[in-house]
Design a protein that fits this description.
121 residues, Butyryl-CoA Dehydrogenase, subunit A, domain 2, 8-stranded mixed beta sheet, 1 helix, 47% strand, AcylCoA_DH/oxidase_NM_dom_sf
């Protein structure tokens, strides 16, 4: 099983303050619908599971983590071709168009700022 971590976005890089990816809760279907694009994600074209960060309407627009699985409707992971460096690393995008993510795939206890803070030390 291969995984990847989707934080970086085309317009804001790895700066979560500018994050545009949205998670809209659909209470009737018991899912979050994710829309947006992550870019320059190592392993995304071959990953079976993905940790993706999005602004959640249910959590006052806070950035929350979600577990996505290959094959979910609306999820594509195109490969980025023609890179000048890191050619041995498969790199791509995670494109989401109203991807239905079950509520149990929300990483409720973990927020993006926690990962960034601990990742520095």
């Amino acid at each position: 099983m291969i995984g990847c971590f989707g934080l970086t976005e085309p317009n804001h890089g790895s700066n979560p303050a500018g994050m545009e990816t949205k998670a809209r809760r659909d209470a009737n279907a018991k899912v979050y619908k994710l829309s947006g694009t992550k870019s320059w994600i190592s392993n995304s074209p071959v990953a079976d599971v993905m940790i993706v960060w999005a602004r959640s309407d249910r959590h006052n627009n806070e950035i929350m983590g979600f577990i996505l699985e290959r094959g979910m409707p609306g999820l594509t992971t195109p490969k980025i071709e023609g890179k000048l460096s890191l050619r041995t690393s498969i790199t791509g995008q995670i494109a989401m168009d109203e991807v239905p993510v079950p509520e149990e795939n929300l990483l409720a206890a973990i927020k993006v700022w926690t990962f960034i803070t601990y990742g520095k030390y």
